[in-house]
Each structure stands twice: as structure tokens, then as C-alpha cells.
Amino acid sequence: MKETTTIFGLRAIIEAIESGSSINKIYLQKGLRGSIYYELDKLIKTNKIATSTVPIEKLNRLSKNNNHQGAVAQISPVEFYDLETLINETLKAQKTPFFLLLDQVSDVRNFGAIIRTAECTGVNGIIIQKNGSAPVNAETIKTSAGAAFKVPICKVDHIKDALFILQASNIKTVAATEKTDSSIYDVDFKQPIAVVMGSEFRGVNPSVLKMVDYKAKLPLLGEIASLNVSVACGIFLYEAVRQRM
């Protein structure tokens, strides 16, 4: 398994971005200045790369006390797919599209477990947002049992961008949410469809809920008010499998 690569130094990170490397996140020291930093900052904004301002102690740990110049980046061990290209390839293969959107699922263990289930249920692709989503790193891949190398993963600027593209391709969207009276068992999963799962703490974003074609909830018969997102996702994906078999 290819581990997540950590690189450090302003110029090295600039070259990685310009070469097209998939950057998970860039950690920056507060108060950076200078022409090289401004060049990096422009690239970060242009490519909408996730960043975090951290104490110098964290940068020292990440770079193993090498000369990081106030910047450390983590490169993803997998390559990401273009969503429109993936949809077209799926349609050309005469498959009934089956996609999964993760609206800022942030825990790597949940993310890895979801990727594993998605691979087992024949999902054509997983779509995540560039900012606020769990990274595809070594821990994600380990939790996915290697499925992260088998399921195409797409990154978009915002989940709403993906919804526009999917709906323009006549792929219906269904959000998992408690904010509805409709049940998962009322949804037709045999049609081209994309399932939307929300984050661990707030669920699906309200602005996303306004855009989807359907909303559906799971029946909860106990006293606990919600399920773990990876468990709930598994139930949704396997209901699709049940209907499609």
C-alpha cells in the first residue's frame, strides 16, 4: 500500500501542486510572509486546497524536525477522478448509475468503512467535497481494506456542484435525513440514483436538502436517536442492492 506522502518546504509544495499531485491538506505556520509564500497562497486559492494554520510544534512533528519553512503538505495515495468523465463512462458501460455523495463526513474510520461497503455494493463512484471531508490517507485505506483503490473517488468544490452534474445526467438524488416523513423503503433505487449521506455531527447540509429529489429516513425503534453514519450508509446501499437484484 502506498502511504500518504508528507512533503515540506514552500518550493517543494508549489512544485507538487503544479505537477498535479492530489494534495489532501496543507499545514501552514501563522504569520508567513514573503514572495514564495504568496506564490504558494495563490496556488492554494486557485486550486481550492484545504489548509490549516497550526503551531510550529505540529509542523516540526509532521516534518520530523526538518527545515519545513513553515509549510507541510500531505499528498493523497490515490488519484481522484473527474465526476463528469466518470458519469459518462458509467453510462457508456450501459450500467444503471449508482453513486454515493458524502457531505463532509470527517472521520477517517467512518470514511474508510463507507468506502469498503460502497465497493461491496457496486457503487460506481464516491463524491466528496474538497474542504471539510476526511482525507484519503493511509488510515482511510487501511479501514477500507484496500477498497479505496477499487472505487473511483471524485473531489468537487461543493456537494451542490455534484448535484447539478448528476441531475443534469438524469440521475436522481436521495438524501438520508430524519427531516422527512418518507421512509427509505418508499424510494425507487432501481433507477439511476445517487445517495447523499451527511456529516457525523449535523447530517446533510440544509442547502443540499433543498436540492435533492428525495429525502428518506431509517426507522429507529429504540431510544437512541441516530445511527453511526457508516452503518446508516450501509443500510441505504444494501436497500439499493436488494431492489436491484
3D architecture notes:
With 245 residues, the chain is an alpha/beta fold. The protein has 2 domains: 5-75, 60s Ribosomal Protein L30, Chain: A (2-Layer Sandwich), CATH 3.30.1330.30; 83-244, SPOUT methyltransferase, trefoil knot domain (Alpha/beta knot). It is 36% helix and 20% strand. The protein contains 9 helices and 10 strands. The protein has helices at residues 10-18, 35-47, 56-62, 83-92, 108-120, 138-143, 159-168, 206-209, 229-244, and strands spanning 5-8, 23-29, 51-54, 71-75, 98-103, 125-129, 153-156, 172-176, 193-198, 214-216. The protein has a 6-stranded parallel beta sheet with strand order 7-6-5-9-8-10, sandwiched between helices. Helix 2 (35-47) links the parallel strand 2 (23-29) and strand 3. Helix 1 (10-18) packs parallel to helix 2 (35-47) and helix 5 (108-120) runs parallel beside helix 9. The protein is elongated.
